[in-house]
Design goal:
Number of domains: 5
Largest sheet: 8 strands, antiparallel
Low-confidence stretches: 494-525
Number of helices: 16
Oligomer: single chain
Structural class: alpha+beta
CATH class of the largest domain: Alpha Beta
Radius of gyration: 25 Å
Mean pLDDT: 87
CATH architecture of the largest domain: 2-Layer Sandwich
Strand order of the largest sheet: 13-12-9-10-11-14-21-19
Distance between the termini: 75 Å
Strand content: 25-35%
Helix content: 25-40%
Number of strands: 32
């Protein structure tokens, strides 16, 4: 077994892995970017090293620096978690060549399943049912138009070959939407996976997203841990997951069949470690198709842990170290029901717009059957540079109905001051008849009127008070890229005194945030002004000054927290002002464009 492991990630998954390592008696080493110096995962680790700048390319994707830290720290293995380098076959090979164990599947398995067209071909040849569509890349829009017209039909899904997590996934309901969908999927594939290749699938009407957790070791043992239902999604990204699927959706016979499909898929690529085989179940429950395989630990692994009692992260670490799985298929059993709500820094009332900001007070729910996997704490900062998920709330109870009640209770206890999250959305959706009936709830997630009822209250005017602020007595010192915590015993820092030289906060205790410093701003514009509803970077500007636009016409695409957000014209008229430019940044409330009524005198 390893004595020291480097966790190449951040946020809640880094904290989750570090906890598992600690319980296994393994030293956990953290890495961090410039803006993550005070992140929770850094404080959890026995050692922490600076990677580089704020962007992912400068930090969590900086392979050269990661290998350097492995040598400096003496780490024998790296755990990539999910995202970033988790499904990067080249990184896995580089680690192997450097004599460092990659905690995950072999590079060849990542290659095989990472390219969705290759994976579909492999699964088809292995006898695993796949969604009707292409197994070869589609070169251009014209080729797609012909294939859809002759073989697939509308609606059609256009998917990036290297995509995942909802990235590079667009749907064309009819031919008029094909070009936009094709270009969008290719663009996201290039941006997030360095591969603009796309393929086509039949878009199934209101299917359920049902996946199976698999575990495999180097000794030929492959097992499944039964299914998860992840049908509650926005923008093709999951927001609520449960294990098992509702009993009236997945019968015991179907459960066994789905599990066997997962095992066969893993065997087909000589898989090792924890992975997930995702599938689509037709709305009538009659057909189940392979969708893709995620060659890593999943965000929603937690619900399966709650219903099986098996620690999936630890099993993956053991498998990477060459040990056998601790359980056989016969020893795996389901008990009760678990639900997970993703706590994203998003405003559901604004079509799930990212909402980064600073956290004020913070209090997690507790009590029987409640688990929180979080990557934030009081005083923390949620950056627009990374994924919007900041925590996961997981509950368990004896059945789905009681688990739902427990989740509603726990959501009511969860307090995150100063940050807009999906907590109100989760509370509203789990109280609906649609959820109780086990529906996919797509009608609600696409209903802008319903979403707007979840709008946050306007922040109250700041109250004047003369209370002294508490000050930090502990500081972080960074020496040659390595982080140390130092406590200083003394009086509070005098007003106007200099902050710590490295600009980081303390390891223990923080200055209490003033109410006026709360993250806020709804980005609302008025009259002719189209204001930004979120903070992010301008990815593309598709109009020009002086151009006439219709209400609802696309004006710009803003990238925030790893999501593309299309900003459309709020009225018809002429673009009188266009102060944004591609590559620039915007904050909530910034003017994107001024749209004057056509014919207005601009002089």
């Amino acid at each position: 077994m390893f004595s020291k492991v480097l966790v190449v990630n951040r946020g809640e998954i880094a904290v989750r892995i570090l906890r598992a390592l600690e319980e296994m008696g393994i030293d956990g080493v953290a890495v961090y970017s410039d803006i993550d110096r005070d992140a929770l995962h850094v404080k959890r680790a026995s050692e922490a090293y600076l990677l580089g700048g704020a962007t992912a390319a400068e930090s969590y994707l900086n392979v050269e620096r990661i290998l350097e830290i492995c040598r400096e720290s003496g780490a024998q293995a790296v755990h990539p978690g999910y995202g970033f380098l988790a499904e990067n076959a080249d990184f896995a090979r580089t680690c192997e060549e450097a004599g460092i164990t990659f905690i995950g599947p072999p590079a060849d398995a990542i290659d095989a399943m990472g390219n969705k067209t290759r994976a579909r071909e492999l699964m088809r040849d292995a006898g695993v049912p796949i969604v009707p569509g292409t197994t070869d890349p589609v070169e251009d829009v014209e080729a797609a138009r012909k294939l859809i017209g002759d073989e697939i039909g509308y609606p059609a899904a256009i998917k990036a070959a290297g995509g995942g997590g909802g990235k590079g996934f667009r749907v064309a309901m009819d031919e008029s939407e094909l070009e936009k969908a094709f270009e969008g999927a290719a663009r996201e594939g290039e941006k997030f996976f360095s591969d603009a290749t796309v393929y086509l699938e039949r878009y199934l009407s209101d299917p359920r997203h049902v996946e199976v957790q698999v575990l495999a070791d180097r000794h030929g043992n492959v097992i499944h841990l039964y299914e998860r239902d992840c049908s509650i999604q926005r923008r093709h990204q999951k927001v609520i997951e449960e294990s098992p699927a509702p009993e009236w959706i997945v019968t015991p016979e179907l459960r066994e069949r789905i599990g066997q499909i997962g095992v066969e898929a893993a065997r087909a690529v000589d898989y090792v470690g924890a992975g997930t085989v995702e599938g689509l179940l037709s709305s009538d429950g009659g057909e189940y198709f392979f969708l893709e395989m995620n060659t890593r630990v999943q965000v929603e692994h937690s619900v399966t842990e709650m219903t099986t009692g098996i620690d999936i992260v630890k099993e993956g670490i053991r498998a990477a170290a060459g040990e056998e799985l601790s359980v056989s298929q016969e020893e795996v059993s389901l008990r009760g029901h678990a639900i997970e709500c993703r706590i994203n820094a998003e405003d559901a009332s604004k079509n799930f717009a990212p909402a980064p900001g600073k956290v004020g007070s913070y209090k997690e729910p507790a009590g029987p059957g409640v688990r929180v996997d979080a990557g934030l704490e009081a005083g923390g900062e949620v950056s627009p540079m990374y994924d919007p998920m900041v925590a996961k709330l997981i509950v368990w109870d004896v059945d789905r109905e009681q688990a739902t009640r427990r989740m509603l209770r726990a959501l009511g206890e969860y307090e995150i001051e100063g940050l807009k999250t999906l907590i109100p959305f989760h509370k509203a959706l789990l109280a609906t008849d649609q959820w109780a009936r086990g529906e996919t709830c797509r009608d609600l997630l696409e209903d802008k009127d319903w979403l707007e009822t979840l709008a946050f209250d306007k922040p109250a005017a700041p109250a004047d008070d003369d209370e002294e602020e508490t000050v930090e007595q502990a500081y972080t010192v960074e020496v040659s890229g390595r982080r140390f915590d130092v406590k200083v015993i003394g009086p509070p820092m005098a007003a106007g005194a200099a902050a710590p030289a490295n600009g980081s906060g303390a390891a223990g205790g923080r200055t209490a945030p003033k109410r006026s410093a709360r993250a806020g701003g709804d980005g609302a514009g008025g009259g002719d002004t189209l204001a930004s509803p979120l903070q992010g970077n301008v990815w593309k500007v598709v109009v020009e000054q002086g151009q006439t636009v219709e209400e609802g016409q696309l004006v710009t695409i803003i990238e925030a927290m790893k999501m593309e957000n299309e900003i459309t014209a709020h009225k018809a008229g002429t673009i009188a002002e266009l102060p944004i430019e591609e590559g620039g940044s915007v904050s909530p409330g910034d003017t994107i464009a001024v749209i004057a009524d056509t014919g207005d005198d601009e002089g």
